[in-house]
Specification:
It contains 3 helices and 28 strands. With 476 residues, it is mainly beta. The two termini are 27 Å apart.
């Protein structure tokens, strides 16, 4: 909390006289309200997040107010959970309080937030907040960038700020196309860890050419002199090639004993917008995992686009129960103002999480009835075989009608023959509307199956729900 008041004092001192007389020249606010009523236990839950942002020339500050009203068992509260002050002067930026920032590729440090995820053109609530509380100082010049930071990150495991992290990071442009960077960081763990402090370092390089993009970063943890065997490290490399035929990208990862409560290394796992695929996303195991991902994107003819993707990974010992792979093909055709077609085929195996084989097919058809009205049909079929011999099918069907930039109504039927599922068929009706361009409402009536919801390799378990849910997003 002390960072907030220090930043506020600096910000007010740097405001010119005219700025202090007319304190704010811009005020922004965003509100997200979620209400749900479960027919399972007749419980009501109301959640509201209000974000404010005040600007006064080169000074900015704001806060987040969170309110939860629920049953006594789930608890209720209302409090300010984030606050910040930010000062900009030329190439210098100073931020005090809560912030979302990233060092390099996230091998050492990244604070971030995920709020929503769109699956089958339907927005899903997805709350993953890993903000940092502290100080972030940054300078950006024409050939040099530097950052100093101190943070108490929000732990994804406990939801507490039990760790302290301090570090420095620099980037230097040797040429207009070549940038080199380095970072040093010290971690003071909480009492539940067996060490008092740990030191980390990282080096990276980035080449941005006209048709070739190369990126690499290596991070390490300083080990005690008596440590034997492979040292804890994280390595990421990527190459992107643009050709007249299409775009080709290749990524490689190598992580060993690098599971930190405040980093977010590239998982090399695609974020699927197909709901059945999203439920079976591979979860990154930074304690012991290496692998690659390759993707080729091209347009064989006007209106057509194709994405082919392959990834594979395993532990360093290539243990059979650690191997996973995925083959993904996405073909789309768009006839402007008339048709949108999409076909998806996917095959994967992830023995680490008990999945011997997952095969998925999806077909989407959108037909424009008029310039503003359209219909949408999505059919997904999936067969899952587990390592213990269980074999079952999943099917998901979505039918919707929409008026462009106004509202839509969708019927979704989720069916599964999984013997572990009590309810085999879960229907839901989803209505969404955009009101005067600043408010968006989504009303869901029906059931939602339990499972993972994943974005960029970050996943959260969503419990089964049956009842009514309303979300209202507003911007002012």
């Amino acid at each position: 909390m002390r960072h907030w008041w220090v930043g506020l004092a600096i910000a007010l001192a740097m405001l010119p006289g005219q700025g202090r007389a007319q304190l704010f020249d811009n005020v922004l606010a965003a509100n997200r309200l979620e209400y749900s009523r479960s027919t399972e236990n007749n419980s009501d839950v109301l959640r509201d997040w209000l974000d404010t942002d005040f600007w006064a020339q080169n000074v900015r500050f704001g806060f987040r107010l969170e309110v939860v009203q629920s049953t006594p068992q789930l608890g209720s509260y209302g409090k300010i959970t984030q606050r910040f002050v930010e000062v900009r002067q030329g190439g210098l930026r100073m931020r005090f309080g809560n912030y979302y920032e990233k060092i390099g590729q996230g091998l050492l440090f990244q604070s971030f937030e995920l709020r929503t995820l769109v699956l089958d053109r339907i927005e899903r609530s997805f709350v993953q907040d890993r903000n940092a509380d502290g100080v972030w100082l940054e300078y950006r010049g024409s050939k040099f960038e530097g950052r100093l930071f101190s943070a108490q990150p929000l732990s994804p495991e406990t939801g507490l700020r039990e760790n302290v992290v301090r570090g420095a990071d620099v980037d230097i442009w040797l040429t207009p196309a070549l940038k080199l960077g380095s970072a040093a960081m010290r971690w003071y763990p909480s009492d539940r860890f067996a060490v008092r402090r740990r030191d980390f370092g990282a080096v990276r390089a980035h080449w941005l050419g006209e048709w070739l993009d190369l990126t690499s970063e290596y991070a390490w943890r300083s080990a005690a002199p008596w440590t034997k065997g492979a040292a804890a490290h994280a390595f990421y490399a990527a190459a992107s090639l643009a050709t007249p035929l299409g775009a080709l990208s290749f990524e490689w990862k190598d992580y060993l004993d690098f599971n930190l409560p405040f980093n977010n290394p590239p998982p090399l796992v695609p974020t699927h917008s197909v709901a059945l695929l999203n439920r079976h996303t591979h979860l990154l195991w930074t304690r012991d995992e290496r692998g690659f991902q390759a993707q080729f994107t091209f347009a064989p003819a006007p209106g057509w686009s194709v994405v082919a993707l392959a990834n594979r990974g395993a532990s360093h010992a290539n243990a059979p129960d650690s191997r996973y792979h995925e083959w993904f093909l996405d073909v789309r055709y768009e006839q402007l103002g008339q048709w949108n077609l999409r076909g998806v085929l996917d095959e994967s195996s992830d023995r680490m999480f008990g999945r011997e084989s997952v095969r998925t097919g999806a077909l989407e058809v959108e037909r424009y009835l008029t310039p503003v009205w359209s219909t949408f049909v999505d059919v997904q079929v999936q067969r899952v075989r587990l390592v213990d011999g269980v074999d079952y099918w999943n099917q998901l069907v979505t039918l919707s009608v929409a008026r462009a930039s106004a509202y839509s109504l969708a019927l979704q039927i989720d069916r599964s023959s999984n013997p572990a599922e009590e309810r085999k068929v879960l229907p839901a009706l989803i209505f969404s509307a955009t009101l005067d361009g600043r408010h968006q409402a989504v009303l869901t009536v029906g059931s939602r199956r339990a499972g993972l919801l994943c974005s960029g390799g970050v996943c959260a378990f969503v419990p089964e729900f049956r009842g009514v849910e309303l979300r209202l997003n507003s911007r002012f």
